[in-house]
Amino acid sequence: MSIPSLIDYQLPVSGEYPLSKVKWKINVNSAALLIHDMQEYFLDYYDRDSQLIRQVIQNISELKQWCKQNNIPVFYTAQPAIQADDDRQLLNDMWGPGITAHPERKQIVAQLTPEDNDKVLDKWRYSAFFRSNLKQQLAEQHRNQLIICGVYAHIGVLQTAADAFMNGIQPFVVSDAVADFSRDDHLYALRYVQRNLGMASELTQIIQ
């Protein structure tokens, strides 16, 4: 009923998932970055010395730096430390109390601490768009592309990408700046994005 203990795996590479049906390219004047659920609580399920998470954090850090250099706005999602049952609803059935049982682990990992001009969105469901004003903030800044990184690829990252697509916002999932329960789950998410709703790109394809 809770997140399982997670083990390291080798990050997928582009040849392991199909080419996208679309050929969108990131425009620095149209894009925003979303760093999804990189809270200590969610990363605690990996080994303390996880090489996978170290690499993903490093890749997200490089991606954020590139976004800052190009004046691309940066958003974060973070679940509130305390969530009433009325707020969690079916999440309790699926995952138990979640972060509410460990409110001391609510912080975003230190290496990715939000800066003063970053926006942190309260996260209530898998998708970053649920009960947030992310869509409105993107519209106000004339941003119709969303670069997505973080955890977990086949749950919140994928659902956020799907919501972006359905709201007319082009989603770009950074394939080596997300992590998942397993390599199979990771590949599932990337394949789904490529086949149905967006682009999965490696970090070097974005910041080159």
Automatic annotation (TrEMBL):
It comes from the Bacteria. SUPFAM superfamilies: Isochorismatase-like hydrolases (SSF52499). The keyword Coiled coil does not apply. Residues 31-197 form the Isochorismatase-like domain. Keywords: Hydrolase. Gene3D superfamilies: Isochorismatase-like (3.40.50.850). InterPro entries: Isochorismatase, Isochorismatase-like_dom, Isochorismatase-like_hydrls, Isochorismatase-like_sf. This is Isochorismatase-like domain-containing protein.
